[in-house]
Amino acid sequence: MEGTQETANMRTETWTASDQLIFFVNGRKIIEKNVDPEMSLLTYLRRKVGLTGTKLGCAEGGCGACTVMLSKYQTHTKQLLHYAINACLAPLCSLHMVAVTTVEGLGSVARKLHPVQERIAKSHGSQCGFCTPGIVMSMYALLRNNPIPKMADMEEAFQGNLCRCTGYRPILEGYKTFTMEGGCCGGRGQKDGCCMMNGSEALRDSKDSDEVTSLFNTADFAPFDPTQEVIFPPELMNLSKGQRSCSLCFHGERATWLQPSSLEEFLLLKWRHPEARVVVGNTEVGVEVKFKNMVYPVILSPAFVPELNTVTHTEDGIVFGAACTLSHMGAVLRQAVKTLPPHQTEVFRAVLEQLRWFAGQQIRNVAAVGGNIMTASPISDLNPVFMAAGCKLTLMDKDTSREVQMDDSFFTGYRKTVVRPQEILVSVHIPYSKKFQFVSAFKQSPRREDDISIVTTAMSVTFAPGTEVVEDIRLSYGGMAPTTVLAKKTANKLLGRQWGEELLQEACLSLAEEMTLDPSAPGGMVTYRRTLTLSLFYKFFLTVLQKLRLQGVGTQEVSSDCVSATEVYQPETPSGIQIYQAVPEGQSQDDVVGRPMMHLSALKQATGEAVYCDDIPLYENELYLVLITSTKAHARILSVDVSAAKRCPGVVCCLFADDVPGSNITGVKQDETVFADGQVSCVGHIIGAVVADTQVHAQRAAKAVKIQYEELQPIVTIQEAIAARSFYEPIRTLQSGDLEAGFKQAQHTLEGEIHIGGQEHFYLETYVTLAVPRGEDGEMELFVSTQSPSDSQCIVAQALGVPANRVLVRVKRMGGGFGGKESRTTALSTVVAVAANKLKRPVRCMLDRDEDMLITGGRHPFYGKYKVGFLNSGKVVALDVSLYSNAGNSTDLSLAIMERALFHMENSYSIPNIRGQGFMCRTNLPSNTAFRGFGGPQGMMVAESWITDVAHSLGRSAEEVRRLNLYVEGEPTPYNQVLHGVTLDRCWDECLSRSGYEQRRAAVDLHNRQNRWTKRGLSVVPTKFGISFTATFLNQAGALVHIYKDGSVLMTHGGTEMGQGLHTKMVQVASRVLGIPSSKIHISETSTNTVANTSPTAASASSDLNGAAVCNACEILLKRLEPFKTKNPRGSWEDWVKAAYFERVNLSANGFFKTPDLGYSFDTNSGRAFNYFSYGVACSEVEIDCLTGAHKNLKTTIVMDVGLSLNPAIDIGQVEGGFMQGLGLFTLEELHYSPQGVLLTRGPGSYKIPAFGDIPKQLTVSLLRDAPNDKAIFASKAVGEPPLFLASSIFYAIKDAIMAARAESGITGPFRLDSPASAERIRIACSDRFTKLCPPAEPGTFRPWSVQV
């Protein structure tokens, strides 16, 4: 002991030099001499090793794009441990003696793909591909630990991965082939289980039908052989076995990392450095350093200390070392639950219930149980359980140790505990439960998986043996105060009472009094949170009643209609059916149009070889730029002080408005500036930029810039704008028929309103630009992630003061766009170009997720007011609607978006007398912009609101009223376009029959009669979406096709690839027209020097426009080759090309297309607004939990008219992806702004997009058969935006379920439900005895945490 103490003394005093870090990456040994403790594994992989397959999506461990696998040899168990982690949070220092496997280590297109890579690609599970490497690594890590997992294991493995494109189903479908449920039976041909049969019935259903239900053939998959995996590096195995535990020390610019090898040494270090942070998984400190600007000069990592990693079983419980990971704790507890008698494991099961929904697998694999306690988060999921169970904690310092109980005195304030600065938490003792003790834990969050709690609770009650008299009760809550709290007053009132109805009444009244919250409390949702404390207690009450009955004690029985309130959520594995029409008999095998061809980049995306903008290798003398943005929503800039920033290491210069060589005026309508000039008009307004040698240096310098403001009154919400008459011109009106006469004719009128929240694009790849000055004539080359290369070119040229011909913009692919990269990307590109121009060096900038969410704007929030006149039958005869959009601080595309909202204000319903007015609100928010649907979904959402109100007020079914009002062939729209080729009725009828609507309606009604606290709802919603840019001049496209001497074809066109498969479809088109296999055709990128003056890739029209242009170019070339074909009819394609070349025939052609007969005028309400319409109908069924507001998406059936599909795999992928994005918009995604206009939701931690678990349990997508469209290439139809709105069927199914819940409380008739239908809104709308105990505070008497913008 003396000896180790001395060594420790020597070590801590002489720790001056840095140690060597030894680790392996993809089998290659790396020895790092000077490791910066603040460097993450992700930065190291991408910038130092050049492995760019691992992506940066959020930097907070919330999206999974950076997932890699770590492997280490555990000396005490002599076993290898493989686990997935987030590289963005993993400190490089923590990887001593660890093997890292990245997506590049599994396989490559050139060598050989790993089955995990191949299957996600071939099952169409990769669209934009930015999330694909992370998903591949999550699956790979699962297979390394469990070669034949269950579907449930797979779903758990993906809890920490997000995808914004696919809608998740194809990923699960492809990977199902690895699982027990869908894997290989070794050719024994078990029914349903054989992978040779699964989903691949020869790709055709039956002999006579031309309906196909499979998009890929599993027979094409390479077999998976777990014995052939990459071995653990033998050298590392020897090093690990022979390693004497030694301490490590790493010094960086601002921090020192100390990794002690023994407990004594650790205690001594903590004594020396009481202010040091202890880091195990870095899942908390990593986020603090990144987002809260924390600097920790000394970091202690106890990962090597044996005492902190051990698990000990004692007679009264299990003791976990504080550094045990949550995954490990879960495994130990699951084993205990399996082996011990049930009455002993009540606490363990409560912990496991919370762990199921605790972050994602990657976080659970590294986060330590001690870290969870010491972080002292008020919304911790586990602390309430530890508190309710009375867990004991062992604390030590250099000289003493003490044991404290986790009770209400342990947390002394917000994120503070009784642990002294020089003490450390050594272990946590989780006790066995007693014979008559019952414990439950509940967590309510916006999204079920990987989400932070709104309210979390654990409740423990102990009864006097053999009775139902309460002997001891603890009710612990998180999310109801700055710390985890115990409801002591309530608990004391319940002691000695019988567990029955009276106790419940008393408990609810008492909890409502004790668990109060200030109406301005951080996190908002105050009424909802207060209601949850009661609702969750009620669930506990019922659960305990059931358990008492089982023990033969209870007198009161849980009535059958309340049983569903006690059911613990068990996820079901989703299943899907995709139906499309086979290609006609006799179509040549080489003609790939109409076949489910894989996305051309899918394989590269799955191996990490696909190059995105930020993956371009660093240039020799490249610099990094970071933006300086406003912290005020509306203010004058008084002064900017950059002196501290300029003193920061690595800084080259700071840029402001005076540094713009050309025009500082910019934007779609020229009403914005490159850099703010004297005034800022939103939080996130770009004021300047810092350029430095590295990203880290530039970020630190940008934070050091000091700006003084004189604040002005901001306008933040639509309601504030209406009050101040703050609107952009013009105010649009669209009118048809005689409104006054219509309302006179009506037998009923009703008025209503709805607010539709905005939406963040959340493309996985944020904005990125790399500008490279070419050194002569003012030339500049830009690599940009944008949907509008030509606009970027013009706007950058304007800022640089050069003609457009000096600026080249190149786009290979984007990691998602969704409209968010249509007009706003120039805000970043111009700044980066100005910097590169000034410094004459390449400059790069990729926004961090929080910056991107703050600066770039999103979908316009809308507020709709309507008055509707209708007959007893439900036929609508008059409608007057006013739409207000929150446009933000500049016009951008808001006018076109409002126009499209007005064009879609009647959705699919024929209304003879109608008027719509559109107001664009000028507010102090970042300018809102294009987003898939472009105003259409908002306009149609208002329509569905009034049609539902009409049905509710008449007491009829909403489906009947919808069907009655549907458009039929030949009817005019409000903008006087006569409808031709209407397939609404066909879609509607097929949707009802495929979904079994009648049976489902009966089943839903039966369920609702039998259950009080869960209700089901059902809804059928149609959509009609106009296809064309509403700005006529944009409906044009160009293409350039070269045939080379060897017969290969290089093609480029005006559209960009963002995952939607546009390049794939264009290759299919060219392949058919030229009559050559698609393998001979290549598209490299989109660039402004090959096709000029292109329109943005938007409005769903890119396949129509560019497809026609490609077709035009190919036909010109075919005509030129015609003589050589005639001359040599038996020759090959190569023969004809060679012959043409020797005859000096031009083998390069420029194609062009413009959509004919377009041009609508608002002034005269005449002219064709759209080329044609896409139609679709969806039927959805949901189940809501009336006590918590949570809901489950049970079944959705979609029938979509996409004409004759160019590529059914891509089109169905678009339908599903669009649907899931709409599901986020209407049920999940909420942007919270403070009353001062500050965005509070700036990352996946606080902003929730749909995850794997949000897919409907049964999803059927059918592409309408025999519906050719004569207005577009090869009779196809646009598919990008139209399906998104069909997700409103989920919203209206929820509304239907709420109706049933309200009826139980005796409330009927129309009611307002704003979008999104979040758990909070659902719970409050299900008015009952619990909500009555928690009335909301009077508006105007307090300042809310967030406002509805």
UniProtKB/TrEMBL annotation:
Superkingdom field: Eukaryota
Residues bound to FAD: 278-285, 358, 381, 425, 443
Any Gene Ontology CC annotation: peroxisome
Domain FAD-binding PCMH-type positions: 250-435
Cofactor note: Binds 2 [2Fe-2S] clusters. Binds 1 Mo-molybdopterin (Mo-MPT) cofactor per subunit.
A molecular-function term among this protein's GO annotations: FAD binding
Cited SUPFAM superfamilies: 2Fe-2S ferredoxin-like, CO dehydrogenase flavoprotein C-terminal domain-like, CO dehydrogenase ISP C-domain like, CO dehydrogenase molybdoprotein N-domain-like, FAD-binding/transporter-associated domain-like, Molybdenum cofactor-binding domain
Assembly description: Homodimer.
The protein's name: Xanthine dehydrogenase/oxidase
Source lineage: Eukaryota, Metazoa, Chordata, Craniata, Vertebrata
Recorded name of the encoding gene: XDH
